[in-house]
Amino acid sequence: MLPMHTIAVRAARAAGQIITRAYGELDRIEVTSKGANDYVTNVDKEAEAAITYQIRKAYPDHTIIGEETGENKGANKDYVWIIDPLDGTNNFVRGIPHFAVSVAMQFKGKTEVAVVYDPIRDELFSAVRGKFAKLNDFRIRVKSRNDLSDNIIATGFPFKAKQHTETYMKLFALTFTQCADLRRAGSAALDLAYLAAGRVDGFFEIGLKPWDIAAGDLIVREAGGTVTDFTGNHNYLTSGNIVAGNPKTTTALVKSFRPLLSEALKR
Question: Which of 66, 108, 128, 189 is most buried (most C-beta within 10 Å)?
Fold first, then answer.
């Protein structure tokens, strides 16, 4: 899988160059609405095209699933690339320097290669299954803080799924009383990467898409963390409902959430 890791890094950096150039000319960005509270820019599309080009050049028969272009089927269906060219678009268009490129490669349904790249800070988080997680060239691990009261927990508001607002606010309020502090930065991919690097201790969010979390999921697990859905199972790539952290933090969050879950979040 190492050659594919090389291609994933190359693709993420190519997209990062496009994003960084555009970030210096925000007044020229074209923004359109895909739906309620869901936006896309010409930069998202150009960055996704750059990622697709790098993958197709190396692996022309692989399948690619992108946030902006959907599924681009290849002859070899065992290999599937899941990409988000710009996770944190709302931050990007407002000039908030917190967003990332996310690239994951699955083989027969298992994520084998993952890259999350922050082009503004030039921080590249990556993992190959069974080969540990890295930030640039240095190995990273989740922090092992035993007590939830010492934890900083990252989260994201369900702004695309506001039907879950009431339940989410209960989870948020309970977590706030139990942990040291909460963070809401606006990029699930970076939240998971920061968790893997020990910058935060846990993460939860409702209603994400596979391209938001596929890469970050592997990076967290290879850094020694655990990732589940709200019921403690492993359906998060399908449901989009995710809890992650070091093993003790994940367990504590899932346990505290369980009595507050709506029927929709129990599935």
Answer: 189
Is residue 84 within 8 A of residue 67, CB to CB? The reply is yes
Structure tokens of 229? 């859905």
* Residues with Cβ within 8 Å of residue 197, at least 6 apart in sequence: 125, 135, 140, 223
The CA distance from 43 to 163, in Å, is 30
Q: Which parts of the chain register pLDDT below 70?
A: 34-39
Assess contact for 216 and 223: CB atoms under 8 A: no
Instruction: Give one DSSP letter per residue of 20-35, joined into a string.
Output: HHHHTTGGG--EEEEE
Instruction: Enumerate residues 6+ apart whose C-beta is below 8 A from 122.
Output: none
The alpha carbons of the chain give a radius of gyration, in whole angstroms, of: 18
**Tell me, what's the pLDDT at 38?**
63
Q: What is the pLDDT of residue 248?
A: 95
DSSP string spanning the chain?
-HHHHHHHHHHHHHHHHHHHHHHTTGGG--EEEEETTEEEEHHHHHHHHHHHHHHHHH-TTEEEEETTTEEE--SEEEEEEEEEEEETHHHHHTT-S--EEEEEEEETTEEEEEEEEETTTTEEEEEETTS-EEETTEEE-------GGG-EEEEE--TT-GGGHHHHHHHHHHHHHHSSEEE--S-HHHHHHHHHTTSSSEEEESS--HHHHHHHHHHHHHTT-EEE-TTSSS-HHHH--EEEESHHHHHHHHHHHGGG--GGGG-
Q: What is the C-alpha to C-alpha distance for residues 257 and 205, in angstroms, rounded to an integer?
A: 12
What is the residue whose two structure tokens read 């359906």? 235
Query: Tell me, what's the pLDDT at 33?
Result: 74
